[in-house]
Write a structure and sequence with these properties.
Helix content is 48%, strand content 20%. The chain has an eight-stranded mixed β-sheet with strand order 1-8-7-4-5-6-2-3, with helices on both faces. A hairpin with a 4-residue loop joins strand 2 and strand 3.
Length: 191
């Protein structure tokens, strides 16, 4: 979108400086080609098939101090989300996760939040939120687990979707949309 705003200003400057028309055509052609390549790259990224990897076993404590193994939810579609209270995109995702857990929870879907954060901050946040899925505390260990689950860029939020066969079938560094989740889980719910 930034190119749309910059190109007219750039052309205005070029025309005022009496630049040769062939150079103007070359620059415009180059910018159009660059835009097309960017769009093509984005489409390829979206269509890229992710390698399926097995979910590793791990256990973490919830905010009450009870230990939970990730295997506790085996046989369900698991959406594991690494988040923190200081992360605006993380907090933006949570209402969608709550809605989807309400909608699909009885159909073998389970969201699991893994907080890479201070426990007191998480408790304070949960006191005024309506999170309806388990929140596990990871603090420093969370980044290590996320990396083992495919987070090679140390992004937060980071979300993985695990099928009923205990395989990670989708990984998303950064914010994850409700529509993307629906697209991925719909075929799994039919299995």
């Amino acid at each position: 979108m930034w190119m749309i705003e910059i190109v007219p200003l750039y052309l205005k400057n070029i025309l005022h400086n009496n630049m040769p028309k062939s150079l103007i055509v070359f620059i415009l052609s180059f910018l159009i080609l660059l835009s097309l390549l960017f769009v093509q790259h984005q489409q390829q990224k979206e269509n890229q098939v992710q390698a399926v990897i097995p979910l590793i076993g791990f256990s973490l404590l919830d905010i009450e101090g009870t230990s939970h193994s990730i295997a506790e939810w085996q046989g369900k579609i698991r959406i594991i989300n690494f988040w923190a209270t200081w992360c605006p995109p993380c907090l933006k995702e949570i209402p969608s996760f709550i809605a989807l857990q309400n909608e699909y929870g009885k159909q073998k879907l389970q969201f699991i939040g893994i907080a890479i954060d201070d426990q007191q901050l998480v408790e304070d946040y949960m006191a005024f939120s309506d999170i309806n899925y388990p929140i596990l505390m990871a603090e420093l260990e969370g980044a290590k687990i996320a990396k083992q689950l495919g987070n090679t860029v140390n992004a937060i939020p980071y979300t993985v979707i695990v099928n009923q066969q205990n395989q990670i079938i989708f990984r998303q560094p950064g914010e994850l949309s409700q529509q993307t989740i629906r697209t991925i889980i719909q075929p799994l719910l039919l299995e």
